[in-house]
Every structure is written in structure tokens, then in C-alpha cells.
Amino acid sequence: MVEKNNKNLECFSKLDIVFPMEENGLRNTPETCFNCLAKTECLRTAIKGANGLKVEEETLDRAYTAGRIGFWKRWSKKKSLKRNRQKSIL
Length: 90
What we know:
It is a single chain. Helix 3 (about 50-65) packs antiparallel against helix 4. The radius of gyration is 15 Å and the shape is flat. By secondary structure, the protein is mainly alpha-helical. Helix content is about 55%, strand content about 0%.
């Protein structure tokens, strides 16, 4: 478990900082995060949050574009993600 003071970092679990989208359309952890003791918990928290649904949606879109999943499966999973996003807002 990470010490409490690491959760007070300004960047903790902010998806666009700790797992930003690169020019190639993929997300990657910046090198500045590699030495952080809170790195693993930070990324897990970021992906479990509301923005994490955005990451799952991006993954679905890439899988569809690559032909790994079909239209209906993508549609069904996106619908499920949309419901989860609405539940997290309420």
C-alpha cells in the first residue's frame, strides 16, 4: 500500500497526466512516473475512475478498427460502458 502523502500529489490518478494520449493514438505512461512510489496505485485509480471508461472505449474502437471484434459486439460493449458512465455520474 502506498503512503497517504503520495495521494496528495497533484498528478495522482489524473488520467491525462499519468496515462496521456500520444501522437500515435495510444496511451503511455510518461517516464517521470516510473520512479514514483505511487505509480501502480495511481494508474489503477485513474483507470477505475470515470475517465477509465474513456480508455475502455478507445480500446474497443482500436479492436474494431483492427478487425478483432465485430460491429455488434462493439456496439453492445459501448452501450454497456455508456450505462456505467451514467451510473457513475448519478
